[in-house]
Amino acid sequence: MPLIVLALTGSAALAGTIAAMRGVTYVLLSIPAGYALDRGNRRNIMIISNLGSGLAMFAVFLALLFKHLSIPELFILYGIEGSCFVFANIGRFSSLRFIIPNEQLHAAIAQDSAVGQFAQMVGPSFGGFLYQTVGPMISFLADAMSYFINAIALSFVNNSLSLEKKEPSEGLRKGLKEAAVWLWGQQLYRVYVFMSWIRIIVVEAVSLLVIIRAKQFHASAGIIGIILAISAASGVIGSIVAGKFARKYNRFTALVVTGIISTAIFMLYFIASKLVTLTIITAILFALFPSYYIICAGIAGKIPHHIQGRVTSITRSGDFICYSLGLTLMGFTVQFLGDKWTISIFSLLLLVFMMIMISNKKLLDAIPSAM
Q1: How far, in Å, CA of 206 to CA of 267, rounded?
Q2: 52-61, 104-113, 225-234, 256-265: least confidently modelled range
Q3: What band does 1 get if pLDDT is binned at 50, 70 and 90?
Q4: Residue 163 included in any domain
Q5: Number of domains in the chain
Q6: Which tens digits make up the pLDDT trace of 154-176?
Q7: Domain that holds residue 10
Q8: Is the Cβ–Cβ distance between 247 and 274 less than 8 Å?
Q9: CATH number where 50 lies
Q10: Given this model, what pLDDT does residue 83 score?
């Protein structure tokens, strides 16, 4: 969508604004979405949401087909697509426990992470290929069809992904208070979420750092795409290995080992003076990044089913804020402080992550294990 705005107006500011809409929309709607998902039929809400996003993208396709697409229309349609995405995305993250037993969460999250990394590897390349070869019109048609396929696939799920017997209806404020009180009373979950937010700031910034460093080495857009594709492929392998690793070793030990290795590897960016070195460092990091969520998968099994959506919405809204914060911090530090200071600052964040982890040894030792 930002590419269309840029092509229509030549304004990077407008392109950036429409790109930022997704994050803003997510944060604003995530809490109400979590409440609605807890109170309603989660599967049906996800189906309707995917259909809504698909119809919005299909409307963009039709507007491009008939050559009648204005900037206000783009903003409205992108807002509709983003709003529906919030419900579908939180529904997806909060539905896992309705079909997966707690003892299998590590394996399920490992597989989900591998699929996500594969999509990250293939999606941008395929999207770019479509945009360059057949133009934006067919790209948006393909995007719309992907949402419709999601809706069809969900219709074959023989489970409402919700509690059959729901609690008596309550207002939004009371419902959110219940989730917030539970979250505040769960020290292990709070530590896990806070640590994950620190980690997200670093993880989301790595791709931008790699692009900036590769540009400094005069790498073409194609070469940068290959570097990121190799890294995503490493993420697929890392997700599979972490799933096996999480079942065999003590949770705290596994977290410390992967945390130390990740921090040490990230610091190697200081000496990355060639594209090959940059690629190797990034590939190893992407292989290690999924391990934290897979090792800690058992924590999600502690959330009561009837507030699953609300708790997930709180944590996911924080995730989206950290996504934006990581990218913004990376961009500003590189521009105004330079590469070395940037790597130092993000290395410090990883060290803070490690310090919080080590200081909560007893708590993290209590992470439920996979069977």
Answers
A1: 12
A2: 104-113
A3: low
A4: no
A5: 1
A6: 999 887 788 766 566 667 788 88
A7: 2-150+171-364
A8: no
A9: 1.20.1250.20
A10: 94
